[in-house]
Amino acid sequence: LPYGGWKNQAPKESPMMLSPPPSVDALEERLSQPSSAAIEALAAVKGDLLILGVGGKMGPTLARMAVRASHQAGINRRVIAASRFSDGSLPARLQAWGVETVACDLLDEEAVAALPEAANVIFMTGMKFGASRNPAMTWAMNCYAPALVCRRFRHSRLVAFSSGNVYPLVSLDSGGSKEADEPGPIGEYAITVLGRERTFQYFSDRYQIPTALLRLNYATEMRYGVLVDIAQDVLAEREVDLTTPMFNVIWQGDANAMTLAALAHAANPPRIINIAGPAFLRVRDVAEQFGRLMNKPVRFAGQEGSTAYLNNGSEGHRLLGNVSVDAETLILWTADWVQRGGESLGKPTHFQVRSGKF
């Protein structure tokens, strides 16, 4: 392929990354190890950091990494995490890592107005799963909440999550969608994600807010992600769907580090950056690899399509740093974790969906 490929491997930052994480504590420690680019960014930007929507899959270890990176940069700053905190145990975990917490519903204008001041804001909130059942809430979360945040933090530096779903499905030999490519969202969820980008772009222009928009595709760790979905199917001897034949993955720790590094690249007009791993992985190949690693037969369903959601992450790697864990290592770690019965978040990615309905 023009970009990526099964044998593409990035150098690892630390020898300790070679062995599979043995426990949730060890996993979260690794997920929060800052890269040199993240440390440099948090040394360069001034002021406190507020992370909005920290209660999702990436948020907790991103917040922990921000604390660690700031300490290693020699910067004394508050790292504040805001969420509705539906998981009542999360505030105590974050506080134990040195992260301050504040409960907030980002659709509540008064609550947003009461958030603490911060020179740097990372916006992680969004709605995907259940979007087809509740489109009004999807539009509110993905477009209205960003407007409230932009008005409130018009004097801050913003990094906001988007998604590779704003791109159309592309051919497998295309090299993946690049930042300058024309969006082509499929389905209402993807349209609202593009709406989120447009909202940030509008307010960035109106108030001259330095902004970075991160099109992520797909973060993975041992408890969730595309690799976990495939490994669980293989272990349970369920058929693996081939309809979407290829995908990107990136170690969530690397996605965390690139997100923090993006603070130093916020600009006006907003800078769009793909966050994706350097390898395009074929579903059939990955499933067969899991079958060998777990000594399981592999069964397939569906016909391999000719298109997929593929992000070209080369610009992101140039700006924000290379990945520290390659796809082959992630496959080995995932097989080990799933086979041992390691904790799962129980949140399938539904990466096979091609209709845009989630």
Strand content: 15-25%
Query: Structural class from helices and strands?
Result: alpha/beta
- What gyration radius follows from the Cα positions, in whole Å? 19 Å
Helix content: 25-40%
**Separation of the first and last Cα atoms:** 29 Å
How many strands, which pairing sense, and closed or not: the largest β-sheet? 7 strands, parallel
How many helix segments? 12
Key features of this structure:
358 residues, alpha/beta, seven-stranded parallel sheet, two-stranded antiparallel sheet, 15% strand
3D architecture notes:
This protein has 358 residues and is α/β, with parallel strands linked by helices. It has 12 helices and 15 strands. It has helices at 24-31, 36-44, 59-72, 90-96, 109-113, 135-152, 187-207, 226-235, 252-261, 283-294, 314-320, 327-339, and strands at residues 49-52, 79-83, 100-103, 120-123, 157-163, 170-171, 211-216, 219-220, 239-241, 246-248, 250-251, 271-275, 280-282, 299-301, 307-308. The strands form 5 sheets. A 7-stranded parallel β-sheet has the order 3-2-1-4-5-7-12, sandwiched between helices. The chain has a two-stranded antiparallel sheet with strand order 6-15. Strand 4, helix 6 (135-152) and strand 5 form a beta-alpha-beta unit. The longest helix has 21 residues, at 187-207. The radius of gyration is 19 Å and the shape is globular.
